[in-house]
């Protein structure tokens, strides 16, 4: 009998994981405390934009014509507990309000809702990103609360997917990491991931703390790489160098690599910023805070990028923002996602509005989410509409659509022709040819 899986928490991670597990051939039952999400997913639609996910849902959600019927949703914890041989916990672990530390209340609540219904041998697998030490704590919580007691096991299986590539990253991961304290847990997870492992995906078995740390270490490294190149951008600007050429040149060294060296307004999203802060907070609790003081600098280089973009815009306008019209291209923290959590683009837009600018934002997929978070910003249905009458245009999220814009057509409707490229992905020559003053970050102005 193939294993039956459940997925608890159906956001960016959980909805993708549930659909991907059905694609691997398992029967999957999903649960989320937000019933609007399960209702939507049950009709094959996603609560968020993630390329390829609706196709996967159409292939597997029960009740959709021609689907495998392997993926279902419920609101009942009892049903989840009875159904699952393996339960994946994919709930959110945001930054605590006003603190660096991780808010574990959603994970704790999911585990305490599930545990009292666990009456037979079963495996609970944490996928959320958590502070090191959480798995051991949750394992004892499960043993205490579950009627099946020691027959309930826990494993930690951190997730490395990127938004915008979530489906592919889940079906074909770079590596699978499992933190276990028992061979049976490892065996069950080898069964779950047999297909990707048979295709060559490395399967790394670790203890709980190492598995938890692998995740935060990976995100800390990625964040550091971005802040490193952004620090080089600051120096390039001071010295008259070009950070894009510098990144290409150092990236040819295999030990450094080309990826994650795109300078600009820095990293945002629901992961890197909060994960490096939670990592610092946890290291502090463990008495190892000195080990991670460099992450404070990584964070401040990153936040400085946003303010620097605001300063560049002010400079382009020749003074303050009061009464000036600013078009912002991009609202999401990255392209191919509708996620606006800690978005550098919206942070810049918000700062300019606070300083008196009239800001109009356009984004291909993020406007609804942006409007909920920043209701007082202006929003336009197209890039052309956002640019109409603008005194400066800020390119802040690197959507392909923005690379394909016609600078000549935009020049006709703009108030003034100032383009500031916060992602260094537009073609300076093309924009300049169309009459724009083009300004990038960490690159020469002319
Ligand atoms: N988004 C990513 O790209 C990504 C990648 C890797 C790891 N992660 C980690 O995965 C976790 C989830 O991230 P996300 O981006 O999917 O968050 P999200 O906010 O999109 O989704 C979390 C979901 O969990 C639900 N939930 C909260 N408490 C619950 C409970 N007690 N029971 C059932 N459902 C509950 C919420 O309603 C929500 O739908 C976080 O720890 C994050 O750091 C995220
Ligand atoms: O060279 C680069 C690369 C990225 N970014 C920015 O960095 C942020 C994060 O990008 P990315 O890492 O691609 O997005 P996420 O989907 O947040 O994925 C990260 O966070 C996830 C949640 O933990 C992990 O699973 C992934 O492995 C990790 O890449 C975005 O704002 C990007 O614009 C840059 O500024 N320069």
UniProtKB/TrEMBL annotation:
Name of the molecule in the record: UDP-glucose 6-dehydrogenase
NCBIfam families, per the entry: NDP-sugDHase
SMART domains, alphabetized: UDPG_MGDP_dh_C
Residue stretches spanning the membrane: none
Pathway per the UniProt entry: Nucleotide-sugar biosynthesis; UDP-alpha-D-glucuronate biosynthesis; UDP-alpha-D-glucuronate from UDP-alpha-D-glucose: step 1/1
Active-site positions on this chain: 271 (nucleophile)
This protein's UniProt keywords: NAD, Oxidoreductase
């Amino acid at each position: 009998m193939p294993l039956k899986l459940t997925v608890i928490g159906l956001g960016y991670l959980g909805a993708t994981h549930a659909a991907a597990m059905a694609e691997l051939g398992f029967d999957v039952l999903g649960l989320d405390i937000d019933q609007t999400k399960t209702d939507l997913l049950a009709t094959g639609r996603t609560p968020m934009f993630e390329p390829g996910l609706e196709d996967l849902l159409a292939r597997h959600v029960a009740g959709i014509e021609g689907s495998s019927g392997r993926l279902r949703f419920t609101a009942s914890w009892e049903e989840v507990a009875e159904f699952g041989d393996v339960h994946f916990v994919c709930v959110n672990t945001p930054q605590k309000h006003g603190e660096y530390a991780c808010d574990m209340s959603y994970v704790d609540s999911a585990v305490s809702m599930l545990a009292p219904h666990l009456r037979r041998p079963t495996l609970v697998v944490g996928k959320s990103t958590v502070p090191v030490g959480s798995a051991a704590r949750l394992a004892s919580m499960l043993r205490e609360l579950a009627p099946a007691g020691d027959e309930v096991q826990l494993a930690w299986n951190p997730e490395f997917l990127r938004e915008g590539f979530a489906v592919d990253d889940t079906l074909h991961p770079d590596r699978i990491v499992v933190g276990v304290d028992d061979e049976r847990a490892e065996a069950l997870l080898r069964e779950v991931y047999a297909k990707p492992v048979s295709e060559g995906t490395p399967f790394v078995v670790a203890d709980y703390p190492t598995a938890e740390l692998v995740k935060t270490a990976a995100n800390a490294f990625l964040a550091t790489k971005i802040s490193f190149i952004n620090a080089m951008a600051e120096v390039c600007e001071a010295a008259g160098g070009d950070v894009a050429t510098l990144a290409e040149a150092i990236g040819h060294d295999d030990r450094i690599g080309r990826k994650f060296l795109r300078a600009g307004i820095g990293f945002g999203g629901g992961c890197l910023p909060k994960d490096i802060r939670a990592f610092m907070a946890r290291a502090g609790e463990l008495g190892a805070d000195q080990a991670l003081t460099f992450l404070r600098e990584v964070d401040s280089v990153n936040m400085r990028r946003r303010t620097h973009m605001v300063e560049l815009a002010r400079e382009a306008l020749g003074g303050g923002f009061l009464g000036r019209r600013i078009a912002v291209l991009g609202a999401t923290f990255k392209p191919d996602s509708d996620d606006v959590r800690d978005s550098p683009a919206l942070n810049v837009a918000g700062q300019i509005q606070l300083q008196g600018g009239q800001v109009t934002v356009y984004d291909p997929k993020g406007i609804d989410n942006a409007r909920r978070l920043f209701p007082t910003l202006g929003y336009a249905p197209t890039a052309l509409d956002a640019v109409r009458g603008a005194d400066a245009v800020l390119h802040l999220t690197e959507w392909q659509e923005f690379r394909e814009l016609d600078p000549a057509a935009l020049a006709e409707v703009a108030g003034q022709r100032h383009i500031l490229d916060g992602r260094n992905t537009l073609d300076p020559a093309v924009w300049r040819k169309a009459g724009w003053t083009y300004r990038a970050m960490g690159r020469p102005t002319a």
